[in-house]
Amino acid sequence: MSGINPLIRPTWHEPCYHAHLALTRHPAHTSRWLGKRDPLAAREHPLAMTTLLRMRIPPGARVYLTTVISLAGVALATWFGMQAGSATVDRGWWTLGAALASVTAAGVPAYEQIRKERLRARAQRAAVDAAVAMQVTMNDALDPIVRQLGRIATAGRHERAALAEAAIPMVLDSAAHLAGTGRVRACLFRFAPGTPTMLVPSQYSGRVDDPLEAIAEGTTQGDLVFGMIRHNQHLFCPDLATSAPPGWRITAPQTYQSFAAVPVAAGQNAFGMLMVDALEVDGVRRADVPLIRLLGGLLAVALT
């Protein structure tokens, strides 16, 4: 087979149906920002307005402000103490002023430290909650796929092909909704028979967009992709405008700005490529690549 590593044997399949799913990510609920736009909503959400008032001072300016207040408190406490020591009348008032200034000088830094500790604890709780939510989401997304792979493993020869085809949209849905941010699309490329060897878009999930073009071996882009599959590597680009892989080209009407592509291969058998792209720069991040590789492996298991 021209240009294909003999250790990796492409597995040919009949063209399968195209599953263009109109599944897009929905923006997060914006009810917590109503206080910034609607006075009535602000009255209904006093806590949001209180938080907004507390955040008016930038963190950098807050540091300088608290430092100035603390130094001024120390200076005033010293001056009030000197006046109290030399005064013959109203000594109690000077002493009270020195005490108040001392409390201010010591209390402001202490309050800021307590506030920072509370913010740190709140951020840690939010991180733990986000990690738990992501784990639950991953379990919910991967559990049906694993169950489907179990059905494929125990099915007879005649049922395996239909079960494998049913597993592909499940994996692509997970790739489109778990990897990246914004409007994400996942596409499975599969080998097409003929010369030159080509990778043809087979099924999609996620963002509804114009179909991707086939990738032919012997072109700059094709050699890059087929080399990636042979060596079980991956392609990743967070910004196509500034760091596109050599020879990678986008033709109209394609408008994606970031992508990751991984092989769909199991052992010595190669089945194609899984590509996840997004319309935004950094919409697909490097941290998403391990998950995409995992999903590519699941696709390969289903197609084995």
Quick structural summary:
The chain has 304 residues and is α+β, with helices and mostly antiparallel strands. The chain has 2 domains: 9-24 and 160-303, GAF domain (Beta-Lactamase, 2-Layer Sandwich), CATH 3.30.450.40; 33-125, no CATH class.
Please provide a written account of the structure.
The chain is built from nine helices and seven strands, in the order βααααααβββαβαββα. By secondary structure, it is of the alpha+beta class. The chain has two domains: 9-24 and 160-303, Beta-Lactamase (2-Layer Sandwich), CATH 3.30.450.40; 33-125, no CATH class. Strands 1, 2, 3, 4, 5, 6 and 7 form a seven-stranded mixed β-sheet that branches. Helix 4 packs antiparallel against helix 5 and helix 5 packs antiparallel against helix 6 (157-178). It is elongated.
